[in-house]
């Protein structure tokens, strides 16, 4: 099972956890959890006016071997207005626009979507239960 928690954070409320959203999905081949502004296709939805987040921004997908990966989906613009970082085991990696990376099996961490124009972020914590 993959468990996700999401907090939308601006400079005014940094450190606050009010309004945290959660979603989970059993580990089954092809299972998907998405994060983005379009509530019709995404399980975790940040504020609608936070345009640095695409309608479908992140996709967590379970592979045939029951391992999970996260992808930064390309939107309608060639250059993103955000930056995405993956933090696991105290190490931070930039996730390239349109790129994917495997999540650690049985591990936890955070995927951070940062606004390039201001002090806002969408922080998505993950925990993979084996």
Task: Please characterize this protein's 3D structure.
With 130 residues, the protein is mostly beta strands. The chain has no helices and ten strands. The protein has strands at 2-10, 21-25, 32-35, 58-62, 68-72, 82-88, 91-95, 100-102, 108-115, 120-128. The strands form two sheets. It has a six-stranded antiparallel β-sheet, with no helix packed on it. It is globular and about 40 Å long. The termini are close together. The mean pLDDT is 93. It comes from Streptomyces luteolus. This is FHA domain-containing protein.
Strand order of the largest sheet: 2-1-10-9-6-7
- Beta strands, count: 10
Shape: globular
Major β-sheet profile: 6 strands, antiparallel
What is the mean predicted local confidence, pLDDT? 93
SSE order: EEEEEEEEEE
* H/I helix tally: 0
What brief labels describe this structure?
mainly beta; 130 residues
Summed up:
The chain is an all-beta fold and 130 residues long.
Write the layout of secondary structure elements.
Elements: E1 2-10, E2 21-25, E3 32-35, E4 58-62, E5 68-72, E6 82-88, E7 91-95, E8 100-102, E9 108-115, E10 120-128
Antiparallel strand pairs: 1-2, 1-10, 3-4, 4-5, 5-8, 6-7, 6-9, 9-10
């Amino acid at each position: 099972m993959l468990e996700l928690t999401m907090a939308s954070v601006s400079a005014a409320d940094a450190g606050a956890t009010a309004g945290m959203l959660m979603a989970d999905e059993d580990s089954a081949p092809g299972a998907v959890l998405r994060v983005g502004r379009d509530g019709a296709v995404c399980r975790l939805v940040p504020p609608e006016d936070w345009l640095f987040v695409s309608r479908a921004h992140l996709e967590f997908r379970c592979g045939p071997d029951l391992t999970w990966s996260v992808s930064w989906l390309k939107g309608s613009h060639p250059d993103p207005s955000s930056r995405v970082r993956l933090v696991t085991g105290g190490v931070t990696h930039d996730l390239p626009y349109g790129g994917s990376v495997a999540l650690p099996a049985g591990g936890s961490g955070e995927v951070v979507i940062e606004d390039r124009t201001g002090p806002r972020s969408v922080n998505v914590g993950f925990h993979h239960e084996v």
